[in-house]
Every structure is written in structure tokens, then in C-alpha cells.
């Protein structure tokens, strides 16, 4: 008869099971990607995206949805190239247009964009894809109730005045060089070397403090309020995403569990979305029709 574990032993086993599960999921995703890649030469796009989506469905909070085949628009008439997946708060924003699997979603609602690749990546095409997103502008032409009053525009709102989506690449490691990585905040690279160390190498391409991330995600191309800047600088400058790495008994980074904490920490920095500029989009479509 097996000896019954003590409460402390059960807690240790539970934690070990959680970390072990992340490692198993990581291996499963990589093996599926390479199996499809080996069978087809290149993984069929829809299958590749479905495999990667398992990872994000596992770690994204329910307040966000993961939408495939999204075009992002802004109130100035800008339209991105197609995004494989977009992470957005569906309860917050209206879809401007939805027809079958194709969606047009305002930039103000997008928390992250995910590009999934399994074949050789063209740096020029990736650069154009990234630029089509980075050139989109959020609008401050909003009216909404906030705690003390009605906010007309973003000038009276200190916490967030503009935003940009996190850019994430999911690919096979052998297909991705530094000329590709520079266009993304995170790269998730499936690796299956000959020695059998099946894993997802996850790189954050900015060695920034949480203050830098906060400023980038909440005041993209905008000046921060000086008082808020000083306060958040004091609070966040001593933390970086390096502080969110989880290691196994050998000291090796548990990639997927680490990414879970890193990504969700950044999503918490934009937990309250910016006020939606309904008038700006009304003016856009009204003017286009008149033209």
C-alpha cells in the first residue's frame, strides 16, 4: 500500500505538475508544427495557425478574445495588412465590419497581433506587414464617463492617451533571423534540434523596464503627464520582464510558463482600454460616403 503524502508533499507535487504540464504542452505544439511541416513541406496556413492558437487560448484571460483573419483600421482611413490573429477586448469595441471570417477592427481595441509562419520568411514582406500596423493612429476624439466627470477627448485622462498593439511572431526557429525579429516585441520560435531538445524559444526583443513598456503601450507617440511620468517611473523602473522568468530544476527557462507571466503582465498595463473615439469613426465614414 502506497504511503499517503503529507499536505506539504502534495503542494510540492501540485506545483511540479503545473510546470510539467507547461513543458508537455510546449513539446506537443512543437511536435505538431514539425509533423505538419514534414508531411506538407510547409505547414498549411490554417493548420499552422490552429496549432499556435492552442498556446494563446491557454494563457489569455477570458476578457480578451483571439480573432483570426483581422484587418485593423484607424479613424484616418488607415488599414493594416491581414493579421493572422488579433487579441482584443470584444466587450469594449464594435466591429466596424464583419463578414464570415473576415473582420475589420479599430486599432483602439487591439491589445496584440500575432503572425504565424512556418516557411522561409521574407524580411521585406514582414517589414511592410509591421509598418502597416505601426503607422495606424489611435484617436483622442472620445466622449465617455469616467469616475469624476465626463471626459471629452483624452486631454483630461491621465492614464492612457494612445496605444499600440504588441507584435508577436510564431515561427520555426531555422526560418527566423535578426532582420525578422526586429519587427516584433516577442518571437516564439519552435525548435527541434537533432539532439532532441524540443522546445519553444521565446525572446523578448526589448530589454526595457516596465516603465518603458507602460509608456510605449499607453502613450504611443504621445507626451505623458509629467506628474504621472514621475510617479510611474519611481514605481516601475526597477522591474523588467527578466524578473518574470521561471526556471526548472536544471536552471533552464520554462519558456511557455515564463511567456504566460510576461505577456499577462503587459496586458495588465493596458487593462483599462482607452476611451473609444466613436465620433472619429463617424466622421471617417461620413466623409468617405460624401467623397
What does it look like?
With 291 residues, this protein is α/β, with parallel strands linked by helices. The chain has one domain. The chain is 39% helix and 19% strand. It contains 8 helices and 10 strands. The chain has an 8-stranded mixed beta sheet. A two-stranded antiparallel sheet has the order 6-7. Strand 6 and strand 7 form a beta hairpin. The longest helix has 34 residues. It starts with 6 loop residues before the first helix and ends with a helix.
Secondary structure blueprint with pairings:
Blueprint: H1 7-40, H2 45-59, E1 65-73, E2 83-88, E3 97-99, E4 102-106, E5 110-116, H3 123-134, E6 143-145, E7 150-152, E8 166-172, H4 178-181, E9 186-191, E10 199-204, H5 210-218, H6 226-236, H7 255-269, H8 278-290
Parallel strand pairs: 1-4, 5-8, 8-9
Antiparallel strand pairs: 1-2, 2-5, 3-4, 6-7, 9-10
Amino acid at each position: 500500500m502506497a504511503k499517503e503524502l503529507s499536505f506539504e508533499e502534495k503542494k510540492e507535487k501540485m506545483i511540479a505538475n503545473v510546470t510539467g504540464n507547461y513543458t508537455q504542452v510546449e513539446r506537443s505544439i512543437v511536435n505538431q508544427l514539425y509533423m505538419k511541416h514534414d508531411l506538407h513541406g510547409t505547414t498549411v496556413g490554417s493548420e499552422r495557425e490552429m496549432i499556435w492558437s492552442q498556446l494563446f487560448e491557454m494563457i489569455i484571460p477570458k476578457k480578451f478574445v483571439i480573432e483570426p483573419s483581422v484587418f485593423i483600421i484607424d479613424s484616418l482611413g488607415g488599414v493594416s495588412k491581414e493579421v493572422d490573429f488579433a487579441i482584443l477586448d470584444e466587450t469594449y469595441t464594435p466591429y466596424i465590419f464583419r463578414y464570415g471570417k473576415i473582420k475589420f477592427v479599430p486599432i483602439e481595441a487591439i491589445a496584440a497581433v500575432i503572425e504565424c509562419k512556418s516557411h522561409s520568411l521574407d524580411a521585406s514582406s514582414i517589414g511592410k506587414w509591421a509598418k502597416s500596423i505601426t503607422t495606424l493612429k489611435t484617436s483622442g476624439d472620445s466622449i465617455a464617463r469616467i469616475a469624476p466627470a465626463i471626459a471629452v477627448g483624452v486631454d483630461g485622462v491621465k492614464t492612457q492617451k494612445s496605444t499600440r498593439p504588441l507584435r508577436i511572431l510564431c515561427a520555426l526557429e531555422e526560418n527566423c533571423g535578426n532582420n525578422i525579429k526586429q519587427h516584433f516585441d516577442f518571437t516564439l520560435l519552435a525548435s527541434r534540434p537533432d539532439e532532441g531538445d524540443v522546445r519553444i524559444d521565446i525572446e523578448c526583443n526589448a530589454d526595457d523596464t516596465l516603465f518603458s513598456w507602460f509608456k510605449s503601450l499607453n502613450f504611443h507617440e504621445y507626451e505623458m503627464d509629467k506628474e504621472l511620468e514621475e510617479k510611474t517611473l519611481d514605481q516601475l523602473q526597477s522591474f523588467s520582464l527578466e524578473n518574470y522568468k521561471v526556471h526548472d530544476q536544471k536552471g533552464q527557462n520554462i519558456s511557455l510558463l515564463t511567456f504566460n507571466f510576461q505577456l499577462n503582465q503587459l496586458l495588465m498595463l493596458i487593462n483599462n482600454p482607452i476611451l473609444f473615439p466613436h465620433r472619429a469613426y463617424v466622421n471617417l465614414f461620413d466623409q468617405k460616403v460624401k467623397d
